[in-house]
Protein backbone atom coordinates (compact mmCIF):
# COMPACT_ATOMS: atom_id res chain seq x y z
CA UNK A 1 0.00 0.00 0.00
CA UNK A 2 1.52 3.30 -1.09
CA UNK A 3 1.18 6.38 1.06
CA UNK A 4 2.24 10.00 1.26
CA UNK A 5 5.54 10.49 3.16
CA UNK A 6 5.20 12.19 6.53
CA UNK A 7 8.59 13.81 6.71
CA UNK A 8 9.23 15.45 3.37
CA UNK A 9 10.63 18.96 3.91
CA UNK A 10 11.07 20.28 0.33
CA UNK A 11 10.14 19.57 -3.26
CA UNK A 12 6.82 18.64 -4.85
CA UNK A 13 4.46 16.99 -2.36
CA UNK A 14 1.66 14.50 -3.01
CA UNK A 15 -0.93 16.38 -0.98
CA UNK A 16 -4.25 17.93 -2.03
CA UNK A 17 -4.44 15.86 -5.20
CA UNK A 18 -1.05 16.96 -6.46
CA UNK A 19 1.64 14.87 -8.10
CA UNK A 20 4.35 13.93 -5.63
CA UNK A 21 6.38 11.06 -4.21
CA UNK A 22 4.93 8.07 -2.37
CA UNK A 23 6.43 5.49 -0.02
CA UNK A 24 5.64 1.88 0.90
CA UNK A 25 6.20 -0.15 4.08
CA UNK A 26 9.28 -1.90 2.74
CA UNK A 27 11.52 1.20 2.75
CA UNK A 28 11.05 2.35 -0.82
CA UNK A 29 10.41 5.86 -2.08
CA UNK A 30 8.58 6.33 -5.39
CA UNK A 31 9.37 9.62 -7.08
CA UNK A 32 7.23 10.54 -10.09
CA UNK A 33 9.35 11.34 -13.12
CA UNK A 34 8.91 14.85 -14.40
CA UNK A 35 7.62 14.71 -17.95
CA UNK A 36 10.23 16.95 -19.50
CA UNK A 37 13.98 16.53 -19.74
CA UNK A 38 14.25 16.79 -15.97
CA UNK A 39 12.71 13.35 -15.71
CA UNK A 40 14.91 11.78 -18.34
CA UNK A 41 18.00 13.44 -16.82
CA UNK A 42 17.24 12.04 -13.38
CA UNK A 43 16.77 8.49 -14.73
CA UNK A 44 19.94 8.87 -16.79
CA UNK A 45 21.85 10.02 -13.72
CA UNK A 46 20.73 7.15 -11.47
CA UNK A 47 21.42 4.64 -14.24
CA UNK A 48 24.91 6.00 -15.02
CA UNK A 49 25.74 6.32 -11.36
CA UNK A 50 24.66 2.75 -10.56
CA UNK A 51 26.79 1.29 -13.34
CA UNK A 52 29.79 3.58 -13.01
CA UNK A 53 32.67 1.60 -11.55
CA UNK A 54 34.73 4.75 -10.92
CA UNK A 55 32.54 5.81 -7.99
CA UNK A 56 34.26 4.62 -4.82
CA UNK A 57 32.15 2.69 -2.27
CA UNK A 58 32.89 5.31 0.38
CA UNK A 59 31.00 7.79 -1.86
CA UNK A 60 28.11 5.52 -2.95
CA UNK A 61 26.84 5.58 0.65
CA UNK A 62 25.90 9.24 0.18
CA UNK A 63 23.41 8.45 -2.58
CA UNK A 64 19.97 6.83 -2.26
CA UNK A 65 19.82 3.24 -3.54
CA UNK A 66 18.17 3.01 -6.95
CA UNK A 67 15.88 0.13 -7.95
CA UNK A 68 14.86 1.18 -11.47
CA UNK A 69 11.64 2.77 -12.64
CA UNK A 70 8.06 1.55 -12.60
CA UNK A 71 4.68 2.82 -13.82
CA UNK A 72 2.42 3.47 -10.83
CA UNK A 73 -0.91 5.16 -10.11
CA UNK A 74 0.03 8.82 -9.74
CA UNK A 75 -0.85 10.63 -6.50
CA UNK A 76 -2.84 13.24 -8.42
CA UNK A 77 -5.28 10.61 -9.76
CA UNK A 78 -4.10 11.14 -13.34
CA UNK A 79 -3.53 7.39 -13.88
CA UNK A 80 -0.33 5.48 -14.54
CA UNK A 81 2.86 7.53 -14.36
CA UNK A 82 6.52 6.47 -14.44
CA UNK A 83 8.20 6.60 -11.03
CA UNK A 84 11.81 6.23 -9.90
CA UNK A 85 12.09 3.53 -7.24
CA UNK A 86 14.52 4.77 -4.63
CA UNK A 87 15.52 4.04 -1.06
CA UNK A 88 13.26 5.75 1.48
CA UNK A 89 15.98 7.56 3.42
CA UNK A 90 13.70 8.26 6.36
CA UNK A 91 12.04 4.85 6.75
CA UNK A 92 14.12 3.73 9.72
CA UNK A 93 13.47 6.95 11.64
CA UNK A 94 10.84 7.58 14.29
CA UNK A 95 11.11 11.36 14.68
CA UNK A 96 13.55 12.44 11.98
CA UNK A 97 15.14 15.86 12.13
CA UNK A 98 15.75 16.66 8.46
CA UNK A 99 17.30 19.56 6.57
CA UNK A 100 17.39 19.97 2.79
CA UNK A 101 20.25 22.24 1.67
CA UNK A 102 20.50 23.13 -2.00
CA UNK A 103 24.18 23.44 -2.87
CA UNK A 104 25.80 25.90 -5.27
CA UNK A 105 25.81 29.67 -5.62
CA UNK A 106 24.42 29.03 -9.11
CA UNK A 107 21.49 26.65 -9.70
CA UNK A 108 21.55 27.17 -13.48
CA UNK A 109 24.05 25.89 -16.02
CA UNK A 110 25.26 26.96 -19.45
CA UNK A 111 23.23 24.31 -21.31
CA UNK A 112 19.92 25.68 -19.94
CA UNK A 113 17.60 28.09 -21.80
CA UNK A 114 17.99 31.84 -21.36
CA UNK A 115 14.62 32.08 -19.56
CA UNK A 116 15.58 29.32 -17.17
CA UNK A 117 18.95 30.98 -16.50
CA UNK A 118 17.42 34.39 -15.72
CA UNK A 119 14.77 32.81 -13.50
CA UNK A 120 17.35 30.83 -11.50
CA UNK A 121 19.63 33.86 -11.30
CA UNK A 122 16.83 35.90 -9.73
CA UNK A 123 15.99 33.14 -7.23
CA UNK A 124 19.67 32.61 -6.35
CA UNK A 125 19.98 36.33 -5.60
CA UNK A 126 16.76 36.45 -3.56
CA UNK A 127 17.74 33.37 -1.56
CA UNK A 128 21.14 32.99 0.11
CA UNK A 129 22.61 30.90 -2.76
CA UNK A 130 24.61 33.65 -4.38
CA UNK A 131 25.92 34.97 -1.10
CA UNK A 132 26.59 31.71 0.77
CA UNK A 133 26.96 29.17 -2.01
CA UNK A 134 23.94 27.28 -0.63
CA UNK A 135 20.40 27.78 0.62
CA UNK A 136 18.14 25.91 3.00
CA UNK A 137 15.19 24.57 0.97
CA UNK A 138 13.29 23.08 3.89
CA UNK A 139 13.71 21.63 7.36
CA UNK A 140 12.08 20.04 10.34
CA UNK A 141 13.64 19.52 13.74
CA UNK A 142 12.03 17.30 16.36
CA UNK A 143 11.47 19.07 19.63
CA UNK A 144 9.62 16.79 22.02
CA UNK A 145 6.55 14.55 22.39
CA UNK A 146 4.59 17.61 23.57
CA UNK A 147 5.54 20.15 20.94
CA UNK A 148 6.33 17.80 18.03
CA UNK A 149 8.37 19.22 15.17
CA UNK A 150 9.65 22.71 14.50
CA UNK A 151 8.92 23.01 10.77
CA UNK A 152 8.98 26.57 9.43
CA UNK A 153 6.75 26.87 6.38
CA UNK A 154 8.05 26.89 2.84
CA UNK A 155 7.49 30.60 2.34
CA UNK A 156 9.37 31.51 5.51
CA UNK A 157 12.27 29.22 4.59
CA UNK A 158 12.50 30.71 1.11
CA UNK A 159 12.93 34.16 2.68
CA UNK A 160 15.81 33.07 4.96
CA UNK A 161 18.72 35.49 5.07
CA UNK A 162 22.26 34.78 6.28
CA UNK A 163 21.34 35.25 9.94
CA UNK A 164 18.39 32.85 9.56
CA UNK A 165 20.72 30.25 8.04
CA UNK A 166 23.11 30.58 10.98
CA UNK A 167 20.32 30.28 13.52
CA UNK A 168 18.60 27.39 11.68
CA UNK A 169 21.80 25.38 11.50
CA UNK A 170 22.17 25.90 15.25
CA UNK A 171 18.50 25.36 16.05
CA UNK A 172 18.61 22.10 14.10
CA UNK A 173 20.97 20.64 16.75
CA UNK A 174 19.54 22.37 19.83
CA UNK A 175 17.46 21.07 22.73
CA UNK A 176 15.99 24.25 24.11
CA UNK A 177 12.53 25.41 22.94
CA UNK A 178 12.17 27.45 19.73
CA UNK A 179 10.68 30.20 21.89
CA UNK A 180 14.18 30.81 23.36
CA UNK A 181 15.95 33.53 21.43
CA UNK A 182 19.29 31.67 21.30
CA UNK A 183 19.46 28.05 20.19
CA UNK A 184 21.75 26.17 22.61
CA UNK A 185 23.46 23.95 19.96
CA UNK A 186 23.61 21.27 22.68
CA UNK A 187 23.66 18.38 20.18
CA UNK A 188 26.18 19.97 17.79
CA UNK A 189 29.15 17.92 18.98
CA UNK A 190 27.22 14.64 18.63
CA UNK A 191 25.42 15.39 15.34
CA UNK A 192 27.85 17.68 13.49
CA UNK A 193 31.05 16.51 15.19
CA UNK A 194 32.59 13.07 15.73
CA UNK A 195 34.40 10.69 13.43
CA UNK A 196 31.28 9.92 11.39
CA UNK A 197 29.23 13.01 12.13
CA UNK A 198 27.84 15.43 9.56
CA UNK A 199 31.09 17.40 9.23
CA UNK A 200 33.18 14.26 8.66
CA UNK A 201 30.73 13.08 6.00
CA UNK A 202 30.72 16.44 4.25
CA UNK A 203 34.54 16.40 4.26
CA UNK A 204 34.49 12.94 2.59
CA UNK A 205 32.20 14.33 -0.08
CA UNK A 206 34.43 17.38 -0.48
CA UNK A 207 37.48 15.19 -1.13
CA UNK A 208 35.56 13.41 -3.87
CA UNK A 209 34.34 16.67 -5.42
CA UNK A 210 37.91 17.97 -5.59
CA UNK A 211 38.68 15.11 -7.90
CA UNK A 212 35.59 13.85 -9.73
CA UNK A 213 34.92 15.21 -13.21
CA UNK A 214 32.12 12.80 -14.18
CA UNK A 215 29.05 14.77 -13.11
CA UNK A 216 28.07 18.39 -12.45
CA UNK A 217 25.37 18.38 -9.78
CA UNK A 218 23.40 21.49 -10.66
CA UNK A 219 20.58 22.37 -8.27
CA UNK A 220 21.23 19.26 -6.19
CA UNK A 221 20.64 19.06 -2.43
CA UNK A 222 22.43 17.69 0.58
CA UNK A 223 19.92 16.09 2.94
CA UNK A 224 21.01 15.98 6.57
CA UNK A 225 19.15 13.68 8.95
CA UNK A 226 19.36 12.50 12.53
CA UNK A 227 17.20 11.17 15.34
CA UNK A 228 17.03 13.36 18.41
CA UNK A 229 16.45 10.56 20.91
CA UNK A 230 19.61 8.68 20.02
CA UNK A 231 21.60 11.92 19.66
CA UNK A 232 20.62 12.84 23.24
CA UNK A 233 22.05 9.50 24.32
CA UNK A 234 25.31 10.53 22.69
CA UNK A 235 24.84 8.31 19.61
CA UNK A 236 24.73 10.31 16.42
CA UNK A 237 23.78 8.05 13.51
CA UNK A 238 23.45 11.29 11.57
CA UNK A 239 23.36 10.84 7.82
CA UNK A 240 24.22 12.94 4.80
CA UNK A 241 22.66 12.06 1.45
CA UNK A 242 22.68 13.77 -1.93
CA UNK A 243 19.28 14.02 -3.62
CA UNK A 244 17.57 15.63 -6.66
CA UNK A 245 19.42 14.92 -9.87
CA UNK A 246 17.07 16.38 -12.46
CA UNK A 247 19.72 18.93 -13.50
CA UNK A 248 22.86 16.80 -13.39
CA UNK A 249 24.96 17.14 -16.55
CA UNK A 250 28.16 15.54 -17.84
CA UNK A 251 31.24 17.00 -16.12
CA UNK A 252 33.26 16.84 -19.36
CA UNK A 253 36.54 16.42 -17.55
CA UNK A 254 36.12 19.45 -15.28
CA UNK A 255 35.39 19.35 -11.53
CA UNK A 256 32.04 20.68 -10.30
CA UNK A 257 33.55 23.90 -8.95
CA UNK A 258 30.12 25.38 -8.30
CA UNK A 259 29.01 22.51 -6.04
CA UNK A 260 32.45 22.25 -4.42
CA UNK A 261 32.54 25.95 -3.55
CA UNK A 262 29.09 25.81 -1.96
CA UNK A 263 29.93 22.61 -0.09
CA UNK A 264 33.08 24.26 1.34
CA UNK A 265 30.98 27.19 2.49
CA UNK A 266 28.52 24.87 4.28
CA UNK A 267 31.49 23.03 5.83
CA UNK A 268 32.80 26.36 7.15
CA UNK A 269 29.40 27.14 8.73
CA UNK A 270 29.22 23.72 10.43
CA UNK A 271 32.85 24.01 11.58
CA UNK A 272 32.16 27.43 13.09
CA UNK A 273 29.16 26.11 15.03
CA UNK A 274 31.33 23.28 16.37
CA UNK A 275 34.07 25.74 17.33
CA UNK A 276 31.64 28.06 19.09
CA UNK A 277 30.39 25.08 21.13
CA UNK A 278 27.30 24.93 23.27
CA UNK A 279 25.82 28.28 24.34
CA UNK B 1 63.25 57.07 -14.68
CA UNK B 2 59.85 55.42 -15.19
CA UNK B 3 59.28 53.13 -18.15
CA UNK B 4 56.71 50.84 -19.69
CA UNK B 5 56.96 47.23 -18.43
CA UNK B 6 58.19 44.73 -21.03
CA UNK B 7 56.46 41.64 -19.74
CA UNK B 8 52.88 42.60 -19.01
CA UNK B 9 50.51 39.92 -20.37
CA UNK B 10 47.06 41.28 -19.45
CA UNK B 11 45.28 44.41 -18.27
CA UNK B 12 45.54 48.03 -19.38
CA UNK B 13 48.90 48.78 -21.00
CA UNK B 14 50.78 52.07 -21.18
CA UNK B 15 51.43 51.91 -24.91
CA UNK B 16 50.37 54.21 -27.73
CA UNK B 17 49.64 57.10 -25.37
CA UNK B 18 47.28 55.10 -23.19
CA UNK B 19 47.01 55.06 -19.42
CA UNK B 20 48.78 52.05 -17.94
CA UNK B 21 51.29 50.91 -15.34
CA UNK B 22 54.94 51.98 -15.25
CA UNK B 23 58.02 50.51 -13.57
CA UNK B 24 61.32 51.90 -12.28
CA UNK B 25 64.79 50.39 -11.89
CA UNK B 26 64.42 49.76 -8.17
CA UNK B 27 61.79 47.00 -8.52
CA UNK B 28 58.63 49.05 -8.12
CA UNK B 29 55.48 48.87 -10.21
CA UNK B 30 53.28 51.98 -10.46
CA UNK B 31 49.67 51.17 -11.26
CA UNK B 32 47.41 54.13 -12.13
CA UNK B 33 44.30 54.19 -9.95
CA UNK B 34 41.10 53.90 -11.91
CA UNK B 35 39.03 57.01 -11.32
CA UNK B 36 35.84 55.27 -10.26
CA UNK B 37 35.15 53.00 -7.31
CA UNK B 38 37.52 50.41 -8.77
CA UNK B 39 40.43 52.67 -7.85
CA UNK B 40 39.19 53.36 -4.35
CA UNK B 41 38.43 49.66 -3.81
CA UNK B 42 41.93 48.63 -4.80
CA UNK B 43 43.55 51.18 -2.47
CA UNK B 44 41.18 50.10 0.30
CA UNK B 45 42.10 46.46 -0.28
CA UNK B 46 45.86 46.99 -0.18
CA UNK B 47 45.54 49.19 2.90
CA UNK B 48 43.30 46.73 4.79
CA UNK B 49 45.43 43.80 3.74
CA UNK B 50 48.68 45.45 4.85
CA UNK B 51 47.30 46.26 8.28
CA UNK B 52 45.29 43.09 8.84
CA UNK B 53 47.05 40.99 11.47
CA UNK B 54 44.87 37.96 10.74
CA UNK B 55 46.63 37.25 7.44
CA UNK B 56 49.26 34.58 8.09
CA UNK B 57 52.81 35.26 6.82
CA UNK B 58 52.69 32.10 4.69
CA UNK B 59 49.83 33.78 2.77
CA UNK B 60 51.26 37.33 2.58
CA UNK B 61 53.98 35.99 0.27
CA UNK B 62 51.35 35.49 -2.45
CA UNK B 63 50.53 39.20 -2.60
CA UNK B 64 52.62 42.02 -4.11
CA UNK B 65 54.23 44.29 -1.53
CA UNK B 66 52.40 47.62 -1.18
CA UNK B 67 54.20 50.93 -0.65
CA UNK B 68 51.28 53.37 -0.62
CA UNK B 69 50.06 55.68 -3.35
CA UNK B 70 51.71 58.60 -5.10
CA UNK B 71 50.74 61.18 -7.75
CA UNK B 72 52.84 60.66 -10.89
CA UNK B 73 52.89 61.86 -14.49
CA UNK B 74 50.42 59.54 -16.22
CA UNK B 75 51.59 57.46 -19.18
CA UNK B 76 48.88 58.99 -21.41
CA UNK B 77 50.28 62.50 -20.94
CA UNK B 78 47.20 63.68 -19.05
CA UNK B 79 49.29 65.08 -16.18
CA UNK B 80 49.46 64.03 -12.54
CA UNK B 81 47.49 60.93 -11.67
CA UNK B 82 47.37 58.86 -8.45
CA UNK B 83 49.28 55.56 -8.69
CA UNK B 84 49.53 52.54 -6.42
CA UNK B 85 53.16 51.79 -5.63
CA UNK B 86 53.59 48.04 -5.72
CA UNK B 87 56.34 45.45 -5.96
CA UNK B 88 57.38 44.78 -9.56
CA UNK B 89 56.90 41.01 -9.55
CA UNK B 90 58.94 40.52 -12.70
CA UNK B 91 61.92 42.76 -11.91
CA UNK B 92 64.29 39.95 -10.96
CA UNK B 93 63.53 37.97 -14.10
CA UNK B 94 65.50 37.94 -17.37
CA UNK B 95 63.10 36.02 -19.63
CA UNK B 96 59.96 35.56 -17.53
CA UNK B 97 57.36 33.03 -18.59
CA UNK B 98 54.15 34.53 -17.21
CA UNK B 99 50.51 33.48 -17.16
CA UNK B 100 47.59 35.56 -15.87
CA UNK B 101 44.64 33.39 -14.84
CA UNK B 102 41.44 35.11 -13.76
CA UNK B 103 39.82 32.97 -11.08
CA UNK B 104 36.11 32.36 -10.51
CA UNK B 105 33.25 31.08 -12.67
CA UNK B 106 31.61 34.42 -11.86
CA UNK B 107 33.47 37.73 -12.21
CA UNK B 108 30.49 39.78 -11.02
CA UNK B 109 29.10 40.10 -7.52
CA UNK B 110 25.72 40.93 -5.99
CA UNK B 111 26.70 44.51 -5.06
CA UNK B 112 27.41 45.43 -8.71
CA UNK B 113 24.99 47.21 -11.05
CA UNK B 114 22.60 45.20 -13.23
CA UNK B 115 24.42 46.35 -16.41
CA UNK B 116 27.77 45.31 -15.01
CA UNK B 117 26.35 41.93 -13.97
CA UNK B 118 24.87 41.17 -17.39
CA UNK B 119 28.07 42.27 -19.12
CA UNK B 120 30.25 40.04 -16.93
CA UNK B 121 27.80 37.15 -17.28
CA UNK B 122 28.09 37.35 -21.05
CA UNK B 123 31.90 37.47 -20.93
CA UNK B 124 32.07 34.61 -18.41
CA UNK B 125 29.96 32.47 -20.76
CA UNK B 126 31.98 33.42 -23.85
CA UNK B 127 35.28 32.71 -22.08
CA UNK B 128 35.94 29.51 -20.15
CA UNK B 129 35.10 31.06 -16.75
CA UNK B 130 31.63 29.60 -16.39
CA UNK B 131 32.70 26.19 -17.57
CA UNK B 132 36.09 25.86 -15.86
CA UNK B 133 35.86 28.28 -12.97
CA UNK B 134 38.76 30.27 -14.44
CA UNK B 135 40.05 31.76 -17.69
CA UNK B 136 43.46 32.59 -19.04
CA UNK B 137 43.65 36.38 -19.47
CA UNK B 138 47.11 36.49 -21.01
CA UNK B 139 50.40 34.66 -21.20
CA UNK B 140 53.90 34.59 -22.53
CA UNK B 141 56.28 31.65 -22.48
CA UNK B 142 59.96 32.04 -23.25
CA UNK B 143 61.12 29.72 -26.00
CA UNK B 144 64.75 30.44 -26.84
CA UNK B 145 67.19 33.20 -27.72
CA UNK B 146 66.32 32.65 -31.41
CA UNK B 147 62.54 32.57 -31.27
CA UNK B 148 62.00 34.74 -28.17
CA UNK B 149 58.62 34.52 -26.49
CA UNK B 150 55.45 32.68 -27.46
CA UNK B 151 52.85 35.34 -26.70
CA UNK B 152 49.45 34.74 -28.28
CA UNK B 153 47.64 38.01 -28.81
CA UNK B 154 44.89 39.27 -26.54
CA UNK B 155 42.09 38.51 -29.00
CA UNK B 156 43.25 34.93 -29.49
CA UNK B 157 43.56 34.37 -25.73
CA UNK B 158 40.08 35.75 -25.12
CA UNK B 159 38.68 33.16 -27.53
CA UNK B 160 40.39 30.19 -25.77
CA UNK B 161 38.16 27.16 -25.27
CA UNK B 162 38.72 24.27 -22.87
CA UNK B 163 41.12 22.50 -25.22
CA UNK B 164 43.15 25.70 -25.65
CA UNK B 165 43.39 26.03 -21.87
CA UNK B 166 44.68 22.47 -21.55
CA UNK B 167 47.24 22.96 -24.29
CA UNK B 168 48.36 26.40 -23.02
CA UNK B 169 48.90 25.09 -19.50
CA UNK B 170 51.05 22.34 -21.04
CA UNK B 171 52.77 24.60 -23.58
CA UNK B 172 53.65 26.98 -20.73
CA UNK B 173 55.96 24.33 -19.25
CA UNK B 174 57.22 22.75 -22.49
CA UNK B 175 60.57 22.92 -24.28
CA UNK B 176 59.64 21.85 -27.78
CA UNK B 177 58.79 24.48 -30.39
CA UNK B 178 55.24 25.92 -30.64
CA UNK B 179 55.18 24.54 -34.20
CA UNK B 180 55.01 21.00 -32.71
CA UNK B 181 51.40 19.89 -32.38
CA UNK B 182 51.85 18.38 -28.90
CA UNK B 183 53.56 20.37 -26.16
CA UNK B 184 56.01 18.05 -24.35
CA UNK B 185 55.37 19.34 -20.81
CA UNK B 186 59.03 18.63 -20.13
CA UNK B 187 59.31 21.26 -17.37
CA UNK B 188 56.01 20.35 -15.65
CA UNK B 189 57.60 18.39 -12.82
CA UNK B 190 60.05 21.22 -12.03
CA UNK B 191 57.67 24.17 -12.44
CA UNK B 192 54.28 22.73 -11.42
CA UNK B 193 55.56 19.94 -9.16
CA UNK B 194 57.97 19.88 -6.23
CA UNK B 195 57.65 20.97 -2.63
CA UNK B 196 57.44 24.68 -3.52
CA UNK B 197 56.26 24.42 -7.11
CA UNK B 198 53.12 26.01 -8.52
CA UNK B 199 50.83 23.20 -7.36
CA UNK B 200 52.14 23.33 -3.79
CA UNK B 201 51.68 27.10 -3.72
CA UNK B 202 48.13 26.86 -5.08
CA UNK B 203 47.34 24.25 -2.41
CA UNK B 204 48.58 26.64 0.29
CA UNK B 205 46.29 29.30 -1.09
CA UNK B 206 43.41 26.82 -1.23
CA UNK B 207 43.82 25.96 2.45
CA UNK B 208 43.57 29.66 3.29
CA UNK B 209 40.53 30.17 1.06
CA UNK B 210 38.72 27.30 2.81
CA UNK B 211 38.93 29.30 5.98
CA UNK B 212 39.22 33.02 5.32
CA UNK B 213 36.01 35.07 5.41
CA UNK B 214 37.62 38.53 5.31
CA UNK B 215 37.67 39.24 1.57
CA UNK B 216 35.83 38.11 -1.56
CA UNK B 217 38.29 38.33 -4.47
CA UNK B 218 35.95 39.02 -7.39
CA UNK B 219 37.63 39.17 -10.79
CA UNK B 220 41.06 38.67 -9.28
CA UNK B 221 43.92 36.86 -11.03
CA UNK B 222 46.55 34.33 -10.13
CA UNK B 223 49.83 35.25 -11.82
CA UNK B 224 52.17 32.32 -12.42
CA UNK B 225 55.80 33.06 -13.25
CA UNK B 226 59.03 31.18 -13.78
CA UNK B 227 62.36 31.49 -15.56
CA UNK B 228 62.99 28.87 -18.20
CA UNK B 229 66.77 28.85 -17.88
CA UNK B 230 66.78 27.95 -14.20
CA UNK B 231 63.87 25.53 -14.68
CA UNK B 232 65.89 23.66 -17.28
CA UNK B 233 68.66 23.34 -14.69
CA UNK B 234 66.11 21.67 -12.42
CA UNK B 235 65.62 24.73 -10.19
CA UNK B 236 62.06 25.97 -10.24
CA UNK B 237 61.81 29.30 -8.39
CA UNK B 238 58.31 29.42 -9.84
CA UNK B 239 56.06 31.95 -8.15
CA UNK B 240 52.34 32.38 -7.65
CA UNK B 241 50.97 35.84 -6.89
CA UNK B 242 47.46 37.22 -6.58
CA UNK B 243 46.85 40.49 -8.43
CA UNK B 244 44.04 42.89 -9.40
CA UNK B 245 41.91 43.85 -6.43
CA UNK B 246 39.61 46.49 -7.94
CA UNK B 247 36.56 44.30 -7.25
CA UNK B 248 37.43 42.91 -3.83
CA UNK B 249 34.56 43.24 -1.35
CA UNK B 250 34.07 42.45 2.33
CA UNK B 251 33.58 38.71 2.91
CA UNK B 252 31.01 39.35 5.66
CA UNK B 253 31.83 36.15 7.48
CA UNK B 254 31.41 33.87 4.45
CA UNK B 255 34.21 32.11 2.55
CA UNK B 256 34.87 33.15 -1.05
CA UNK B 257 33.26 30.02 -2.50
CA UNK B 258 33.45 31.43 -6.04
CA UNK B 259 37.22 31.94 -5.93
CA UNK B 260 37.78 28.69 -4.03
CA UNK B 261 35.79 26.63 -6.55
CA UNK B 262 37.74 28.09 -9.47
CA UNK B 263 41.05 27.63 -7.68
CA UNK B 264 40.23 23.94 -7.05
CA UNK B 265 39.44 23.54 -10.75
CA UNK B 266 42.81 25.05 -11.73
CA UNK B 267 44.52 22.78 -9.18
CA UNK B 268 42.84 19.78 -10.80
CA UNK B 269 44.14 20.84 -14.25
CA UNK B 270 47.70 21.27 -12.96
CA UNK B 271 47.52 17.95 -11.07
CA UNK B 272 46.34 16.17 -14.22
CA UNK B 273 49.25 17.57 -16.24
CA UNK B 274 51.66 16.38 -13.55
CA UNK B 275 50.02 12.93 -13.52
CA UNK B 276 50.18 12.64 -17.30
CA UNK B 277 53.90 13.42 -17.14
CA UNK B 278 56.13 14.32 -20.01
CA UNK B 279 54.87 13.36 -23.48
UniProtKB/TrEMBL annotation, chains A, B:
The keyword Nucleotide-binding applies. Its EC number is 2.7.1.140, 2.7.1.151. GO terms for cellular component: cytoplasm; nucleus. The keyword ATP-binding applies. InterPro entries: IPK (IPR005522), IPK_sf (IPR038286). It is an enzyme of class 2 (transferase). GO terms for molecular function: ATP binding; inositol tetrakisphosphate kinase activity; inositol-1,4,5-trisphosphate 3-kinase activity. Keywords: ATP-binding, Kinase, Nucleotide-binding, Transferase. It catalyses: 1D-myo-inositol 1,4,5-trisphosphate + 2 ATP = 1D-myo-inositol 1,3,4,5,6-pentakisphosphate + 2 ADP + 2 H(+); 1D-myo-inositol 1,3,4,6-tetrakisphosphate + ATP = 1D-myo-inositol 1,3,4,5,6-pentakisphosphate + ADP + H(+). Gene3D superfamilies: Inositol polyphosphate kinase. It comes from the Eukaryota. GO terms for biological process: inositol phosphate biosynthetic process. Inositol phosphate kinase with a broad substrate specificity. Belongs to the inositol phosphokinase (IPK) family. This is Inositol polyphosphate multikinase. The lineage of its organism: Eukaryota, Viridiplantae, Streptophyta, Embryophyta, Tracheophyta.
Amino acid sequence: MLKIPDHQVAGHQARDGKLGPLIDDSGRFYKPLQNDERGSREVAFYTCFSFNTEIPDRICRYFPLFHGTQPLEASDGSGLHAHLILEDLISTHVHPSVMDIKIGSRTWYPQASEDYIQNCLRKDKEATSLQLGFRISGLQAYESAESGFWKPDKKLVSSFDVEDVWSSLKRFVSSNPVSDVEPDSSLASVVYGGSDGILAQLLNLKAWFEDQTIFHFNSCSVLVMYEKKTAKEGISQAKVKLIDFAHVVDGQGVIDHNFLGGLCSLIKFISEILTQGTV
